[in-house]
Write a structure and sequence with these properties.
Blueprint (H helix, E strand, L loop, with lengths): L3 E5 L16 H13 L5 E4 L4 E3 L1 H10 L3 E7 L5 H13 L6 H15 L3 H8 L3 H7 L7 H8 L5 H8 L4 H12 L4 H17 L3 E7 L5 E9 L1 H20 L4 H15 L4
Parallel strand pairs: 2-4
Antiparallel strand pairs: 1-4, 2-3, 5-6
Helix pairs in contact: 1-2, 3-4, 5-6, 8-10, 9-10, 11-12
Family: Belongs to the ParB family.
Protein name: Chromosome (Plasmid) partitioning protein ParB / Stage 0 sporulation protein J
InterPro entries: Chromosome_partition/occlusion, ParB/RepB/Spo0J, ParB/Sulfiredoxin_sf, ParB_N
Length: 267
């Protein structure tokens, strides 16, 4: 367990690899006044005084004339994964984070440590149910995630929409929410849609004749109309990308088959 020590501000050095380069003077002044009263989170440093996490607090301390900061000194140089985890964990605890920024921090912590949601909840010391809601943004389509990032919909809205199956239904729920539905109304709408999909015909083969004698065939397990729309939309996007890259249809078919084989889980 690392111990917190009083570290001289004058002996601290910034990390040249810190991605954050811009610091607002007014923001630092406000933070410095707060640090004079109480330092909630310690800074993290290497043995030579180089900052691992806390450059904003260090700059604020210099600005208001503080002589020391509470810090944790690492005897062993942390790995890049440990450094990222420290910064992300500190970032997550900030009170001014948006729900979408919390989602991004949690998603990155999962990726770095190969954790599941329960392990992440234990590390952050928060309720696993809260982590489930935070991570719901990873289960929605891009349109819903963009609305969440913009602050147009709430975390509870995202959680409700994430329970819907397929991009088409999620887009419909997003449109309903943006039209003025409350979160409870959104949840009821999703539940009704789920019940409706249970009674909808589910096919293993869908054949559609198009103009000019072209026949489109889809095969799968439990195909519904919403599923057909999603599959055809993704196929069309892939075909357009291949066309824009100058690939012939035979190359595109081979690329699609290769991707399909890669997505099949192996026993």
């Amino acid at each position: 367990m690392q111990q917190i020590v009083k570290y001289p501000v004058i002996d601290i050095k910034p990390d040249p690899n810190n991605p954050r380069k811009a610091f607002e003077q007014a923001d630092l002044q406000y933070l410095g006044a707060s640090l004079k009263w109480r330092q909630i989170e310690p800074i993290h440093l290497r043995r030579d005084g180089t900052l691992i996490d806390g450059e904003r607090r260090w700059r604020a301390a210099q600005l208001v004339g503080l002589e020391t900061l509470n810090g944790i000194v690492w005897d062993d140089i942390p790995s890049p994964q440990e450094l990222a985890a420290i910064r992300l964990t500190t970032f997550f605890q900030r009170v001014d984070l948006t729900p979408f920024e919390k989602f991004q921090a949690c998603e990155e912590l999962l990726r770095l440590n190969n954790w599941n949601g329960k392990q992440l909840a234990g590390y952050l010391k928060i309720d696993p149910a809260s982590v489930t809601k935070i991570l719901a943004a990873g289960k929605v389509c891009e349109h819903v995630r963009d609305a969440f990032a913009a602050g147009t919909i709430s975390q509870s809205d995202v959680y409700a929409i994430s329970k819907a199956e397929g991009e088409t239904e999620q887009k419909e729920l997003l449109a309903a929410k943006l039209s003025g539905l409350s979160r409870d109304q959104l949840e009821r709408k999703r539940t009704r849609a789920a019940r409706g999909s249970d009674t909808e015909s589910r096919l293993t083969t869908v054949k559609v004749s198009l103009h000019g004698g072209t026949l489109v065939t889809l095969r799968g397990h439990g195909l519904t109309l919403a599923g057909v729309i999603d599959h055809l939309s993704e196929t069309l996007k892939s075909a357009r990308r291949a066309h824009d890259s100058g690939h012939p249809v035979t190359t595109w078919i081979r690329m699609m088959n290769d991707r399909s084989h890669q997505e099949i889980p192996h026993a």
